[in-house]
Sequence to fold (123 residues):
Amino acid sequence: EAQLAESGGGSVQAGGALTLSCTASGIKLDYEDMGWYRILPDSECEPVAIVSAAGTLYYTHGGNVKGRFTISRDNEKKMVTLQMKNLTPEDTAVYHCAVGNLYLRCDPDYEYWGQGTQVTVSA
Fold:
């Protein structure tokens, strides 16, 4: 059964850091992108970052993500990681990992989508 399992969310104060991890099982990753998206408290979905099958990194232009967040993947461990630093309350969201042919936009047709992990940043 194909599955994505996220971990690493939690509550931090502004300026803090968290590392999110997502492990894939039952999915062949060789030609698949891996990425992170977030659902904000107002239910808006935002792309965060993607690492392509070839290892190219893409970051959303919004939310000052680039420079604060770092995405990486480990194909042997079937894992994608999102290191987040200098977190602000605006980063509060449920973070979902995704696998498939991904873009820097939210799309309900992405092939694999995790259940999400909550990140809460207090002022």
